[in-house]
Amino acid sequence: MLEVSVSGYHSWRRRPVSNQQQWDALLQQRIQEIHQCRKGRYGAPRIHAELRAEGVQVSRKRVARLMRAGGLRAKGKRRWVRTTDSAHPFPVCPNLLDREFNVQQPNAVWASDLTFVPTREGWLYLAVTLDLHSRAVVGYAMDAQMPATLPLAALQMAVQRRCPAPGLLHHSDRGSQYASRMFQEELARLRAKGSMSRKGDCWDNAVVESFFSSLKRELFEDTIFENRTVARQAIFEYIEVFYNRQRRHSTLGYLTPHEFERQAKAA
């Protein structure tokens, strides 16, 4: 039926596996290990960067082909409801950042925002502060509610860890928590300048929005945490162990925030 001779068939069976096939098998095994180790969070670009960091010379196209053959893909994106309450009586700061997200010095520009994480106990609210120089999360706080003290706690953690010099630019949306007298007084005490996004424009704080998108996609996607304690522990591990120290960031040339800061300091 296949028009193959008996001798040709047996010759094919005796033929050794080619070097390329052997290399593909080894490479696919390592790709699966990285994909599993990163809990399905990495697609072809980041797995390619991970392999290159290990000294493996391979093209991104080959990595993508082997991932398709193995049925591997990164977790998909989801849409999430925003938590900004801009209907408040507090004054708002001008948009001094103006989407200038590429910052050359550490602790010169920070960006903050709030989001929520679903649990079977109810929402767990998360506030983060990122250093736009390295995209590192320098401060964060979690609470069952969303008071003005929540982003303030994230800011204070960042200040304690980084000790920014006067002149720091702090950017956020124009939500009531960030516009509150309590938060603005803390910025004044630090001699920091406040900056806020334009109304209804999430792109003005795109770096933090991107972080939240990655966290929700890579940490739990379709999972609802059993309670807030479990969610807190998972978020802590994601930020402190994975995101700042292991996750390769495309904007940083596929370095981790920790590696990027270390190289910038050495330079």
Question: What key attributes describe this structure?
Answer:
5-stranded mixed beta sheet, 5 strands, 10 helices, single chain, 267 residues, 43% helix, alpha/beta
Notes on the protein architecture:
The protein is of the alpha/beta class and 267 residues long. It has helices at 6-14, 19-37, 44-53, 60-69, 149-162, 176-179, 181-189, 206-219, 228-243, 257-266, and strands spanning 109-119, 122-131, 136-143, 169-172, 193-196. It has a five-stranded mixed beta sheet with strand order 3-2-1-4-5, sandwiched between helices. This is Transposase InsO family protein. Residues 102-265 form the Integrase catalytic domain.
Quick summary:
The chain is an alpha/beta fold and 267 residues long. It has helices at residues 6-14, 19-37, 44-53, 60-69, 149-162, 176-179, 181-189, 206-219, 228-243, 257-266; strands at residues 109-119, 122-131, 136-143, 169-172, 193-196. Strands 3-2-1-4-5 form a 5-stranded mixed beta sheet, with helices on both faces.
N-to-C CA distance: 67 Å
Radius of gyration over all CA atoms, rounded: 23 Å
The largest pleated sheet is described as: 5 strands, mixed
List unreliable stretches of 5+ residues. Answer: none
User: Averaged pLDDT, please?
Assistant: 87
* SS elements, strand count: 5
Which word captures the global form?
elongated
Strand arrangement, largest sheet?
A: 3-2-1-4-5
Number of helices, counting only DSSP H or I runs of 4 residues or more: 10
Instruction: Classify the helix fraction into a percent range.
Output: 40-55%
Structural class: alpha/beta
The run of helices and strands is: HHHHEEEHEHHEHHH
- Portion of residues in beta strands equals 5-15%
Protein name: Transposase InsO family protein
InterPro entries: HTH-like_dom (IPR025948), Integrase_cat-core (IPR001584), RNaseH-like_sf (IPR012337), RNaseH_sf (IPR036397), Transpos_IS3 (IPR048020), Transposase_IS3/IS150/IS904 (IPR050900)
Domain Integrase catalytic: 102-265
Pfam family, one: HTH_21
